[in-house]
Amino acid sequence: MKLSELAEHFEVLDRLTSRNAMIDALAELFKASSDPEEIRKIVYLSEGILLPPFEAVEMGISEQLMARAIAEATGQGVERIKELFREIGDYGSVAERLITWKGKNMSVSQAYDALLALTRITGKGSIQTKVSGLADLTRRMDPKEARYLLRVPIGKLRLGIGDPTIMDALSYACAGSLSLRAVIENAYNLCGDMGRVARVLFRDGPDKLRAFKVEVGSPIRVELAERVESVQAILKRLGKCSAEPKYDGFRCEVHKDGNEVKVFSRNLENNTQMFPELVTAAREQVKARRAIFEGEAVAYDPETGEFHPFQITVQRKRKHLIKAMREELPLRLIAFDCLYADGDELLYEPYVVRRQRLKDIVPAQNTIAVTDAIISDRAEEITAFLDAMIAAGLEGIVAKDLESPYRAGRRTFDWIKLKRGYPGRLRDTVDCTIVGYFAGRGKRAKWGIGSLLCAVYNPENDGFETITRVASGLSDEGWQDMKKTLDEVRADEKPARLDSLYQPDVWVEPTYVTEVLADEITRSPSHTAGRDGGRTGYALRFPRIVTSIRADGKPEDSTTVEEIKRLYKIQRRG
Asked: Is 34 buried (19+), middle (13-18) or exposed (0-12) by CB count in 10 A?
């Protein structure tokens, strides 16, 4: 496929607001290519990336460097480029306006490979080499090609396409219906790489996807827990079950292959370099040559052994000064599941089998420790365990079905989390995606930000629905830092995947997740969460920010509309 054809398809997608229309348009795009390897690259580019998150590829192209590259390609001054950017708000469109030549008829693969090659440039003089390389690529593109391709290096493609939409489109492209959707999703859950799934589907066929196996080194999408209001509700759903402590740290999926160890986050980012003590412990403690296991990494006080709250633990998520922070805030990994061990794929085994295998391969209680657990069908016993966890400063408990398999990438009632709350009050925090901000009044007016517009995720339509405006919880410095962060992803118009009745002063692309605590969930005609075509949605009353940006969350991992409805019912029963 020629790059010009891809740009035409992207232009069509850019104009669409209907999810069904986007699925149809994407399916046509995938069918327009006959090369499975090219389809893999098209999938990545459609998401505005070059490789899946766990590959940790970084373009290293800031907006400042993009301005330099466009200036070099067009012969304009950098200040002129920045002036146009302030007018237009998008460097892709700036290049489109200035390019006066015809493109060099590049293929999609040639353009993709050229961008990927820029990510591998390192060392002395690498910045100028990247700028010159990007300028050379720009000189080979026509205006429309540049509009879309130059948005990729700075993360601004903004076609509004999420994973569920791509999976639906792949199914339609291959089978003409949604008949392959479950097969595609299962393979994606086992490898976390949508491009790879697309390539296998079009190269080897659906049967190859059905036979998909987990691989050490390729992260598995994590299972998530549902919520209920009481121990009695847990027992009603699960009967006799396991109850484990609920820690508030970094969800870590550890892959060990001999001496090679990788640590992946909840959203499949490769965090191996950030947590060297976990890598060393996995090599020395884990009594399996090849293994995949999960746990929660929490910072602790080495003198008292007490765990720090998440706001302290989050300081360990950094790319620099890792050694100093490791000494100041050491981590302990509390392991709670084993998914693979020395040739045995354990995802489909019952919880009790997986837990025993975990105890077999992690016998020591040092940097890596197997989580405590009780097995019971007595409400008073589980309640006492919950009280003990709360008294120890933990969040609560997670109850697990003894016979359930590990359901990768899914949120089910096989796992149920329960935190201590107050009767009639919201018992849990809500992870919200930030979709805009308001300028504010008083001293906040001079900062240009006073409150956030936040949304929750609706997987049914792969979209976001607003649930709150939040204006408290951050310090003065915190608000100023928040504005700087959000301005990197500001949008000229309402994001395509967002349903909102509000019009903030600044729209932002759904990128960052903030943790919000509120007194209760109410019904509201002003917000769209759970409105479902009616007049009233759900809203958070008296919201305040607990964690400004959740480092381990991506927009699609934020609280779902169905969870909000369930929390509302739980709250009312309370």
From this structure: exposed
Q: Which residues of 477-503 are buried (b: 16+ CB within 10 A; e: fewer)?
A: eebbebbeebeebebeebbbbbbbebe
What pLDDT score was predicted for residue 134?
97
Give the residue-averaged pLDDT of 204-215. 95
pLDDT digits 0-9 by tens, 256-280: 999 999 999 998 999 999 999 999 9
CA distance 1 to 31: 11
Q: What whole-number distance in Å separates Cα of residue 471 and Cα of residue 448? A: 13
Banded model confidence at residue 312, pLDDT cuts 50, 70, 90: confident
For the question of residue 246 being annotated catalytic, the response is yes
Asked if residues 281 and 271 have their Cβ atoms less than 8 Å apart, the reply is no
DSSP state of 509: -
pLDDT higher than threshold 80 for residue 25: yes
Closest to 398 (Cα-Cα) out of 190, 573, 223, 186:
223
Which overall architecture, per CATH, does domain 224-419 show? 2-Layer Sandwich (3.30)
How does 383-398 read in b/e, with b if 16+ C-beta sit within 10 Å?
Answer: bebbeebbeeebbbbb
Query: Residue 83 phi/psi, 5° resolution?
Result: -65, -45
| Cα(182)–Cα(188) distance, integer angstroms | 10
- So where are the chain's domains? 224-419, 430-573
Beta bridge partners of 552: none
- Predicted confidence band of residue 65 (pLDDT cuts 50, 70, 90): very high
Q: How far is CA 31 from CA 8, 26, 35, 514, 537, in A?
A: 14, 9, 10, 38, 38
Whole-angstrom CA distances from 541 to 471, 516, 546, 565 are: 12, 11, 15, 15
Q: What is the pLDDT of residue 573?
A: 64
pLDDT tens per residue across span 155-195: 888 888 889 999 999 999 999 999 999 999 999 999 999 99
In whole angstroms, what is the distance from residue 310 CA to residue 315 CA?
Answer: 9
Q: Please state which CATH number belongs to domain 430-573.
A: 2.40.50.140
Q: Where are the beta strands (DSSP E) in 105-201?
A: none
Q: Which of 82, 130, 156, 246 is catalytic?
A: 246
Contact 36, 47 (CB under 8 A): no
Q: What is the mean pLDDT of residues 2-14?
A: 96
C-alpha separations of 262 from 255, 293, 358, 359 in Å: 5, 11, 18, 20
List the structure tokens of 308: 């720090």
Tell the residue number behind the tokens 């308001």, with chain if given. 438
